[in-house]
Amino acid sequence: MAIDVRVLRVFTDRDGRFGNPLGVVDAATVGPPDRQRIATELGYSETIFVTVPDAGSSTAHAHIHTPTTELPFAGHPTVGASWWLMNQGKPVKTLQVPAGIVPVSYDDQLTSVSARAEWAPDFSIHNLGTVDDLSAADPDEYADDAQHYLWTWLDEPAGTIRARVFAPNLGVPEDEATGAAAVRMTEHLSRDLTIVQGRGSIIETTWSADGWVRVAGRVVDDGTHHID
User: Fold this and answer.
1) Which of 119, 162, 203, 223 stands the most exposed, by the fewest C-beta atoms within 10 Å?
2) Could you please report the per-residue DSSP string of 79-127?
3) What CATH class has 3-113+216-227?
4) What is the pTM of this model?
5) In CATH terms, is domain 119-215 a member of 3.10.310.10?
């Protein structure tokens, strides 16, 4: 039986361009043993399997897979799944993932999740001098047993940075827009940020001194893909 995969782009710009593709699957249609196979076959940086909440419930459960492994938390899947649930007429206040309980909010065109900084994986952070240096960076020149966050300021007073993320150890040579990395970077700099990543995806973050980071972005629906 074919499985429906809703394909979203998460962290688009204000015109709906760019964004990181995400597969969203109703967990009721796929048993746990098949989830990694499906995520691998789809090939997105992440696919999220969501247990749709019962009527009246304000929380949903979810599991996130890269092409090679399951993650306890990731940003663009939790933002995308929260947006998808809202558009199913089932907005939630929290999303339960293996790392913990993720608060969710909806504000105008933005969908937001909040995460603990320690939920995000460790990244090797590389502060490059200029945007040209960032653009010229070659993923093959960075170790393949780690995740690498490359960044430079676009407007330091305004808190706007340009970034790229290489995650070969997760089967993702370069990620278009990475919410977990945005959490880690926001905690690293201890300030609110606007992050322009990849080709032009936009992630908005809000830092809190108590260890929570709010990650917000826009989402576009690219339709349904069917997989056996």
Assistant:
1) 223
2) HHHHHHHHHTT---SEEEETTEEEEEEEETTEEEEEEEGGGSPP-EEEE
3) alpha beta
4) 0.96
5) yes
